Amino acid sequence: MTTPASRTDDGAPEGSAVGAAAGADLLDAARRLAPEAIALRRALHRGPETDLDLPATQRLILDALDGLGLDIRTGRALSSVTATLTGAADGPTILLRSDMDALPVAEDTGLPFASRGPGLMHACGHDVHMAMLVGAARLLAGRGATLPGRVVFMFQPGEEGHHGARLMIEEGVLEASGSRADAAFALHVNPNMPAGEVLLRPGPQMAASDRFRIVVRGRGGHASAPHTTCDPVPVACEIVLALQSAVTRGVAADDSAVLSVTRLTAGTATGVIPDTAELSGTLRTLAEPTRRRLHEAIARVAHGVAAAHGATAEATVVTGYPVSVNDPGMTALVRRAAADALGAEAVRELPAPQMTAEDFSYVLRAVPGAMAFLGACPPGVAPHEAPSLHSPRMTVDEDVIATGIACEAAVALAFLAGGGRLDG
């Protein structure tokens, strides 16, 4: 669907400069937009939706973008929104992305705008991401007369395990402007980082995420006579321990991998040894060779341990999101643009990659890009004490919404002003 609209102005002076030179006034412009963005964030927070079908969320975004002179299209297989801003002069294209979906988490924040959806919550900050990206769209649309290129605003459902970014790529989001995007950028709030700080690093920043499931098959019987059975429960327990050793003894110290068994189920009664036991969990890695090697190790360990006890095991690994790899040149541009807009003291290099995962990784595999974390620790609490992402008590400092608007706009302006050049 394409929605015609007209441009509005954010109040910036006519003919404002673009790129790093414009950084000084972006934060002021973003602060003027902040009340409206915060109101949108709270409306989104009250009405969370999950997975790929987010009709109410999509409607809020469409209404918020109305009147900005953007070419707006909605998804076919998912409730996505793609909005393209075309500047007055020809130039490169940059994509800015926000995710849209919530989590199946029962909110426990006590906020006056807490979720009204039973068992649902924006516990990962996607409501904040949407509000920031709408704000950036408003700010940049007000400067459209000076933009040498195009900006694509990507509002994406299904980040929480449903591969929404991949689906949007399949539906053409990278070509939404008429030519393939030359670069991409996304911000992700983090309540365990100081409010207002922008943190990122070149290379791997977030992990690949895979799921595994192992079914151990033995032979059940009476719990009073285990010697007449092939008990799958201790076999499953040994597999759990052996998998931990497969990581600590099989992955180099300068590499990174996390394997967590998060579920182990067996049996129906205390007096019965079951026929089967099942365990499942997650694998996180930062390098594809390590990822492939541990996929093989999961199957090998499960089969070997089971065979040693006369049981069998069936191991299945479901491949999830790829490693999120920041392009060095785009990372450097983000650092410069954010420093110009927010001050050098607000930008830091992320000390180490995070073992969380992101489906923005699909975009980063397709075009040079970067994701940065935006510190959002709520007032009155230390970052290490704040409830984390995915917690039912997760909250953010809403003042960082203006920071995020300015940062996203600054990155877009700097990229377009530089003609799309990336010097790593």
TrEMBL record:
Superkingdom: Bacteria
Pfam family, one: Peptidase_M20
Record domain Peptidase M20 dimerisation: where: 211-302
SUPFAM superfamilies in UniProt: Bacterial exopeptidase dimerisation domain, Zn-dependent exopeptidases
Record InterPro entries: Amidohydrolase, Bact_exopeptidase_dim_dom, Peptidase_M20, Peptidase_M20_dimer
Matching Gene3D superfamilies: 3.30.70.360, Zn peptidases
Name recorded for this polypeptide: M20 family metallopeptidase
The organism of origin for this protein: Streptomyces lavenduligriseus
